[in-house]
Amino acid sequence: MSHKQFIPPKRTLMGPGPSDVSVRVLHAMARPTIGHLDPQFIMLMDEIKGLLQYAFKTNNALTLPVSAPGSAGMETCFVNLVEPGEKVIVCVNGVFGKRMVENVERCGAIPVIVQDEWGAAVSVDKVEVALKENPDAAVLAFVHAETSTGVISDAEALAALARNKNCLTLVDAVTSLGGVELDVDGWGIDAIYSGTQKCLSAAPGISPVSFSEKAVQKIQKRKFPVQSWFMDLNLVMGYWGSNAKRAYHHTAPVNALYGFHESLLVLKEEGLDAAWTRHNYHHEALKVGLEALGLELTVDEACRAPQLNAVRVPEGVDEAAVRTYLLNTFNLEIGAGLGALAGKVWRIGLMGQSACRENVVLCLEALDSALNNQGYPHKAGAGVAAAESFYEQ
Ligand SMILES: *Cc1c(COP(=O)(O)O)cnc(C)c1O
Of 239, 269, 299, which residue is a domain's last? Predict the structure, then answer.
């Protein structure tokens, strides 16, 4: 067998992540590798922390990118904040909430599950009851934007409830950061993790996290050592901490961080509010186009995530065949349903750089063609026309 270079095809990424990575970010990653303790690299680390504080809207000193994907950010939050035997209220309304429960169990803690339907937001009322019934709960954990269903939950209201009960808040912001309003300090969130490959449009493999002063105090007062060596923040801070000697802990993914830094610069240049507005704007265009094609969004308008659109697969249409057709004919990736929604929905991402007019129009054109290919009756051309007229308003 002969081996050769891998040249990836040029895709348009409109799934649940990764999203399109701009040439600007790709070029940043191609710059020369330097040492992870090089004084110039240390300067870049400080820059990244500052930009992350901007993105999260926080002054938390303990704000840094974990050298691993979003799932590692999730695990970093749980293993540091949660001790064996503690009670953690976990809200489950999709795949990622379920993963939170597994994290709690693996910490040797006791999950108190607040269950909501897949496709519904986390019920603020149910959480209020759970907090009342479990005054000893140490942490309330929930997913801000549930990527498996396309639902936004009211993180501000949930965090406020927890704060009143002296319970720490742990939030999954992997899909929400950069795409919808998020205010870590304003809302009083204590531990939060995100990803680079969703609304920040950097390459996958890094997970920004941030911890409040209260969370840091809890971590410092732990009775049991953090069971993960790699994720133990007490050790990581020897490398990433502000007053640290910057001693070796692990080798940071130097070039990936160049790219991540560039993506944060892009966000800062655009402005957080403008980025949130852009995601919503293109979501509106996609929505009118999908509806004109006779397709239906599954999530209630009140809690719809603009950056992740769950679309009902019409009766008689082969869900997987449509995705394969889009990939092969249009070089366009959209997502399949996850878990309980497998086979029932497509997930169309409008994340980061992918939230743009060209992508919306391409996606509607490609879906139109795919429905035609499936022999599904619809008004040909109506989707693109509706979106174009939305944009021309
Ligand atoms: C993608 C995602 C994750 C996991 O991130 P990875 O980078 O794939 O590990 C966690 N939570 C949510 C809500 C996500 O969308």
Answer: 269
